[in-house]
Amino acid sequence: AQTVTQSQPEMSVQEAETVTLSCTYDTSESNYYLFWYKQPPSRQMILVIRQEAYKQQNATENRFSVNFQKAAKSFSLKISDSQLGDTAMYFCAFMKPTNDYKLSFGAGTTVTVRA
Amino acid sequence: ETGVTQTPRHLVMGMTNKKSLKCEQHLGHNAMYWYKQSAKKPLELMFVYNFKEQTENNSVPSRFSPECPNSSHLFLHLHTLQPEDSALYLCASSQTGVGSPLHFGNGTRLTVT
Q1: How far is A109 from B12, CA to CA, in rounded Å?
Q2: Chain centroid offset of residue A64 CA
């Protein structure tokens, strides 16, 4: 099984500021897929961003962007201009390039945006 | 997003009860999943169905019995559960295809008394 590590259990950020969440993973694959999911109090896991390992360009989605460092096996998420609605638990996830479609998740980081 | 709907939202059951969780997706996907989310633990994959065929059973105890009658519906039948089975059970679906993201429902919060 792939190991995904999120070393920050909790983070707090002031509204309109920027916060960066860390994620590292362990794999021997050369190609794979990485994801960030957001889980607000409503409990639904919402896809935030997706990155393909063979693409060097970092994925972005509005205020969310990643810093993908393949050699370091690092996949951090930056939330810019934080909003109160960004308060949620954030999960990093890894998917192998196989037809089993299985996602391996990290333990999550709880982000609280302060007004 | 209401593409994946789970019912019930909350469920309390005794250890001798039999109950079922239901999941329905309206996204035209062909793969469906059950995940278990316990406090302080990463999400655990339980089952994967691809075109109605079970392709993954992640060593789940037999007191959990999945059923996938078609690509849009997924059930999790529960019987003689243990208190440690109390958790949030999340259903997800995806397109078949390497790297396709999963789309999740709101989950069923299960409490076993």
Answers
A1: 28
A2: 10
Pairing of strands A3-5, A24-26: antiparallel
Query: Which residue from A93, A56, A63 is spatially nearest to A78, judged by alpha carbons?
Result: A63
Nearest to A102 among B1, B45, B106 (CB): B45
Collapse the DSSP code of B46 into the 3-class scheme (helix H, G, I; strand E, B; otherwise coil) and give the result. Answer: strand
Is the CB of residue B103 less than 8 Å away from at least one CB of chain A?
yes
Here the contacts of A51-56 (C-beta below 8 Å, separation 24 or greater) are: A51/A75, A52/B99, A53/A29, A54/A30
- Asked if pLDDT for residue B40 goes beyond 80, the answer is no
Q: Which of B98, B103, B104 lies nearest to residue A99, judging by beta carbons?
A: B98
Shortest distance, CA B32 to any CA of chain A (angstroms):
10
What pLDDT sits at residue A90? 97
Question: What confidence score (pLDDT) does residue B26 get?
Answer: 95
Does the pLDDT value for residue B1 go beyond 60? no
B 31-90 → A contacts, CB under 8 A:
31, 33, 40-43, 45, 48, 50, 55-56, 88, 90
* B35-44 mean pLDDT: 89
What is the pLDDT, as a whole number, of residue B57?
82
